[in-house]
Amino acid sequence: MSEIFALDLQAQYESIRAEIDSAIQQVLSKGSFILGDEVSVFEAEFAKYCRASHGIGVGTGTDALFLSLLSCEVQTGDEVIAPSHTAVATIAAIELTGAKPVLVDIDIQRYTLDLQHIEKAITKKTKAIIPVHLYGCPANLEPIIEVARPKNIFVIEDCAQAHGAKYHGQPVGSHGDIAAFSFYPTKNLGAFGDGGMVVTDNSALAEKATLLRQYGWKNRYISQIKGTNSRLDELQAAMLRVKLKYLDIWNRRRRELANHYLRLLADTNLILPTQPSDCEHVYHQFVVRYSKRDDLQKFLQQKGIHTAIHYPVPVHLQPAYTNLGYPKGSLPNTEKISTEILSLPLYPELTEEQVKFVSECVLEFIN
């Protein structure tokens, strides 16, 4: 069998090439490239998809988090609770505000924030909590929100890996006070470059985020507040509008392939992904755990199977963040899984035959 990549973006493009090329041509023909009709229509369409009232297109997923935090008036002297097991963007966004990231351990099943650790971390300085819906599995939001609301702590959903995932039947991004999405090309809904979206039901937060993304302008050239420059462009919005029509189909395909993996790898000592009964997983990644992860990854590479590790080093142990004061051993669940996790190939264009081959290779190694 030919090489199996961890992700094949070209295959997705080829499946909708005509629609994407047409969308690009329409934008080029209009001659409007920043915050035009494509952006405003996509904002409305994506907000509706998330069952939220407002969508604000921005430059990146990191910016979406940063501007969400600023909209909640997070600033120097505040504390924001987040997992260490996440893309570093989550923590980078917190630090951009001047606030202190307070890193806590995860639920060993979901790989998302664990309520018992959150409660211990809350102080008078806690301004926000960021549950990260990692790998496409929603965090257990209800108890987090129940703890946060009476204390006037904002809940900011990091939905960068969970477009279309549902918690209690409701799409992620519509549960907390405000949410951040990334449209980085590898995401379940990915652009052909960078892009992001702030989503919220709160009109005041939406207005603040809208001002912040473009210099604080309500009227052009007049800054009502100090803002920045983070705008989703027309080309990306037009292409994302095409892709949004296919998102549910692609997510359904991801679940089918994930279930195929789960059946084929069921009788092994691999720790397989779980789908909690309260949510609908969208398998941005299919992550298994194995004690000899590095050896397994090398073996699969020799078979022409590309895999990835999300993420090999927890944020609190990375050189840039040692100043946060979390020594090795301080977040045991996070540290344990970082040595065991492996993301197997999974994307909508993958075939059942390829999943079977990957599974057979895994079984060959571990048996």
Give a description of the structure.
The chain folds into 2 domains: 9-104 and 111-244, Type I PLP-dependent aspartate aminotransferase-like (Major domain) (Aspartate Aminotransferase, domain 2, 3-Layer(aba) Sandwich), CATH 3.40.640; 247-366, Aspartate Aminotransferase, domain 1 (Alpha-Beta Complex), CATH 3.90.1150.10. 38% of the residues lie in helices and 14% in strands. It has 13 helices and 14 strands. α3 packs parallel to α9 and α4 crosses α5. The chain is globular and about 65 Å long. The model has no long low-confidence stretch (mean pLDDT 97).
Specify the structural class. Answer: alpha/beta
What is the gyration radius calculated from CA atoms? 20 Å
CATH class call of the largest domain: Alpha Beta
Rounded mean pLDDT score: 97
Spatial sequence of strands, sheet with the most strands = 1-9-8-5-4-2-3
Shape: globular
Q: Specify the CATH homologous superfamily of the largest domain.
A: Type I PLP-dependent aspartate aminotransferase-like (Major domain)
Number of domains: 2
Give me the CATH architecture of the largest domain, please: 3-Layer(aba) Sandwich
Largest sheet: 7 strands, mixed
CATH topology label of the largest domain: Aspartate Aminotransferase, domain 2
Distance between the termini: 21 Å
Query: Secondary-structure element sequence?
Result: HHHEHEHEHEHEEEEEHEEHHEEHHEH
Number of strands: 14
Fraction of residues in H or I helices = 25-40%
